[in-house]
Design goal:
single chain, about 80 residues, alpha+beta, 4-stranded antiparallel β-sheet, about 30% strand
Length: about 80
């Protein structure tokens, strides 16, 4: 399965954002964070990435989290 340039940029932004304590803390505490690429736009005219965490409960009672970056599942 090939990954689009948009999906690749979102995965890159997620990886960079997870290096920052305040981003990780916001995702953990509030389920949402905004990462701004300080080195310019990864995508044309875009340097802001919205990260959101969704907790999913399975039928077996276990919970797992899915993290999205601009609507793309990244973790």
């Amino acid at each position: 399965m090939s990954v689009s340039a948009y999906e690749e940029a979102c995965q890159w932004a997620y990886a960079k954002a997870m290096l920052l304590d305040d981003i990780r803390d916001a995702l953990e505490r509030f389920g949402r964070a905004v990462y701004r690429d300080p080195y310019g736009a990864v995508l044309s005219a875009q340097n802001q990435f919205v990260l959101s965490r969704v907790d999913v409960h399975g039928h077996d009672g276990n919970m797992r989290s899915i993290v999205y970056c601009n609507g793309v599942a990244v973790a």
